[in-house]
Amino acid sequence: THNLPPGLEYLNQLDRIIIHQQVELLEAILGTETSSKYEIKNHLGQRVYFAVEENDCFDRNLCSPIRSFTIRIADNMGREVIRVIRPLRCNSCWFPCFLQELEVQSPPGTTAGYVVQNWDPFLPKFTIQNQSKEDVLKIIGPYATCGCFEDVDFEVKALNEMTTIGKISKYWSGFVNNVFTNTANFGIQVPVDLDVRMKAVMIGACFLIDLMFFENSLDGL
């Protein structure tokens, strides 16, 4: 563990990570996008990290699903341990040269890996890359991300896309919660022995999936 980036030792024994967006009353009442805040927990519901999105009001309200952002993730001592950086890019499969790409740093300033959107006319597809931009894993979503009162799963697969090793799930949490607060509740399941840097990149992938497919939708309906 002495070779792990500072703060990522919390992820070393985890095979399940829960991400819960905190309710923003101003956003719920006025319908105005505010900076998102998240609690990142283990499977027992204990908080291991706290995340805050940084961008400006223009990005949040006019570029909402494709907005650029920096998400700073801190441990329970307030030490920033992960930084997720998303530039402003296209969100359409009709522009394959300018699809989504997100960088995850841990410690901040040192690249841990990338999440890269892959062109596909039907399915949401992403590649998880290491710090050298070498492909490590794939993420493949469903044809429709509208769950109709059930969870929506994005499968984590080996590079051959045949073997499923985990998933990122958008949990359906009820009509009232989704419509009036638009909060996000996600679960990440990965092998416990997956490199902690790749677990950190999976957290970044979860934020990207949330904004691309669930930010302005009636999640799970």
TrEMBL record:
Alphabetically ordered keywords of this record: Calcium, Lipoprotein, Palmitate
One GO MF term: phospholipid scramblase activity
Cofactors named for this entry: Ca(2+)
InterPro entries: Scramblase (IPR005552)
Pfam family, one: Scramblase
GO CC aspect terms: plasma membrane
The organism's place on the tree of life at top rank: Eukaryota
Assigned protein family: Belongs to the phospholipid scramblase family.
Biological function: May mediate accelerated ATP-independent bidirectional transbilayer migration of phospholipids upon binding calcium ions that results in a loss of phospholipid asymmetry in the plasma membrane.
Name under which the protein is recorded: Phospholipid scramblase
Gene: Plscr5
